[in-house]
Amino acid sequence: MKRLQHSKNFFLMLICFITYPSFCYSSENTQFNYISTAIQSVITADEHPYLNKRIFLAYKKIVDDLYFVSPQHLLWLNKDELNNQNIMAVLKLISTAKQSGLEEEHYNLSLLRTQWQQLKDQPDSSFNQLATLDIAISINLFHFLSDLHFGRINPLTLAFNFVPNKNSSKFVPLILNAIQTNEIDKLANKVEPHHPIYRSLKTALLNYRQLNATPYPNKIRYISSIHVGETAPQIIAIRQQLKHLGIQTSYKNTASCLFDDNLLNSIKTFQIHHGLMDDGVIGRETIKALNIPLSKRIQQIELAMERFRWLPKIQTDSLVIVNIPAFQLWAYNTRDTNSSNVLNMKVIVGESVKSKSPVFTADMYYVEFSPYWNIPKSITIEEILPKLEENALYLEQQNMELVTGFHNNEIPVLYTEDSITQLKNGLLKIRQRPGEKNALGKVKFIFPNKHNVYLHDTPSQELFNKPKRDLSHGCIRVEKPTELASFLLESKPGWNQKETLKAMQLQQPKQVRLKKPIPVIIFYSTALAIKDKIYFYNDIYDYDAKLNQALIKHSNRQKAHFSTLLSSN
User: What is the pTM of this model?
Assistant: First the structure.
């Protein structure tokens, strides 16, 4: 009898195998086919029922790649269990957008939650409805990760010469792996910039939002500059503001109007952190900075985070960064975690009206000691020719000469009426010989670029004492050229600070190639965060205002589409 039962079971198993999938697994297989058909129907459509058409078309190819791995399965939804952990995790992830200076509704969070709730309230949801929401979640996740990684605005439209490479296909394996390992919550951290300044900005954003949640003290009226030891009624409000910012945490007499030494230290700290001359005087600019609303500071941080997303990924041991509105340069070894080893100096950048320094990245290849200054045609026409008409000895007095080209071995052309005519017609050029009067000083740092911009020394060291240093024709003058040259050449055999100083005294130009190229980033950010300290600067080129307008326009497009969807549902 047992043998008969065993034979019967074997026979049934054999029938199942022979008739698969039309018998035992026909229901499950049919469900897979329905899901696959529904997914392809949504992906191949010209538009999505409730997503922005532009966004849908931008990501549909990548979404197709995402579902290609398992075309018969939904990624976030399950018809039998709509409250599964995947959809809850991905919606929670999108809800963290504000922490990174983004808006969660740009990724349709409310809409996705509403559609999800409707499916839960409708037990007989079709496979097409499930696939439609599943793909909507995937597209909004791609959109969110892309904005986190690449930024929302094309930098080239805002005078930032960083070529965007928005290849979102790199997110496909990240998402699939996150689903498999239940680490969807870690996706944002994996795609956000890993630059320490960006991470510190994110922390500062949280801190300033918390500060902004409590009432900010009243605005302070500027009457006249206040010096240490003086009394003024505004001192009480100034102390309150500094305490609110965490700069001055305690003082003995809250009602005192005396500008004492304790307040002096706090004022200097505030000035350093707000791009002001740290002279300890409470002047007009210091009062102005104290009165700026925290909402404005939050906006500066958010704009800075957006710009850091534009930066190309740089994998190198050494790096040179110039931040234009900070009038500062930093040079450091990226593998050295000791912040005290960072070389920092003041810089002079392009004048804000006519000669803005461009924003870009390039590799530095060599240093040139005792350089010629090859004077640009625009400076020759606008500045030197008028002076020559007034003073025929101007070139000689400024150690300048006429040449046919800018090679170092050019033979100077004699100064005559004929040669001046050739100069006016563009047939001759002017260069300044190496020496004490040379506008480039004793060394320049070359990173070839289409803007013909470089770093260089200057004989006008007194200009570094000015708080606002947009004074050049576009190139960038450095305060500590000897230290910068030593940093760049430290890995080159036979070079040290002594050799650098020796080369700077040469009478003829000398080029020294770096051991390997070093990236240079000419950047623009009115907010920087280094470790736990935040720094703010004035928007000297009006670039914050332009980026903010671009983001408002971007946001309004998103909100307009979202409003249309709400009214149609």
Answer: 0.88
